[in-house]
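Ticket opened by: R.M.
Priority: normal
Category: complex prediction / small molecule

The reporter submitted a protein together with NAP and asked that the result be attached to this ticket for the collaborator who will pick it up next week. Submitted input follows.
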Amino acid sequence: MTRILVFGKNGQLATALAKAEFGSEIELIFIGSTEFNLIQNVLGIHQYIINSNSFDAVINASAYTDVDKAEMQNAQDAWVLNALVPRQMAQACKLLQIPFIHVSTESVFSGLETTPYTPTSKTNPANFYGLTKLKGEYWVNAVNGMGAVFRTSWVFSNTGNNFVKTILRVAKKNDVIQVVDDQIGLPIYAPDLAAALLAVIRFTVSRPTEKLYPTYHIAGGGRPINRYDYAKLIVQLSGLKTNIVPISSNQFAAIAPRPKNAVLDTGSFTSKFNIDLPDWQIGLKHMFSKVG
Ligand SMILES: NC(=O)c1ccc[n+]([C@@H]2O[C@H](COP(=O)([O-])OP(=O)(O)OC[C@H]3O[C@@H](n4cnc5c(N)ncnc54)[C@H](OP(=O)(O)O)[C@@H]3O)[C@@H](O)[C@H]2O)c1
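Result attached by the on-call engineer:
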């Protein structure tokens, strides 16, 4: 039996991990903010993992993910959870000689390049959230333990906050909505991200001496899409009649800038772990079939 400690409990990724099908050989134990507030007890995390000493791997699905609040009013919380906490986790895992699977974001990139970002592309965070996540990555890699950083992008599911749910909420209330058409990305359905990470766990636990690259990219299979076309697809699948009008990022007053190009190149991930990443549009239809 492989026992995995997962930080994050009610978030998108953690919820998908909890619902994932992985048979009886894997047991996941979830720690949310109620059980252990990571922001309030940064130094305690190390001891917590060491004391438990009964896990074969740790997945960090916790993060401060409100990009606009991270930019201004809650910058300190974002810094603590995204930058400082992963270092403590990575150090404890290294001491226990167990893999640490850390999740990061496309926001570590500026989004100004015109081609998909590979794991070795130059980082230059688009916003403060991206900066905090980049610092977390830096420290996880500096600890140089087992495991790796897995960047992902545009995660959606029926849980929590995400673009799909926001568009649905706004489209239900309005006849016309404006959506930016100059931000392009490759979404991923949270259950597909969860399945990919569980495949990583199986891989690392069965080949403990095999060295991984420091960083991999996981995004949905299929074609990238801009937010305007994405919103049109969401509205069409929902059966709503809302009219979507394209605007530019300059016309949309977001507090934190978003990368214009958020497309991640997943080639090194799929070849290393021999995984097919399902087309995100299949995930989107599956999400809609769940809400009815
Ligand atoms: N969402 C996206 O579009 C996206 C895109 C790129 C990368 N990512 C990355 O993917 C990962 C998972 O994202 P997600 O969408 O699943 O995030 P999410 O839905 O916002 O969930 C965040 C998780 O962090 C936990 N958390 C927050 N504050 C905490 C605290 N003070 N103490 C302990 N736990 C705390 C929450 O715990 P509770 O369970 O207690 O609420 C929750 O489980 C993150 O690393 C994120 O940066 C996400």
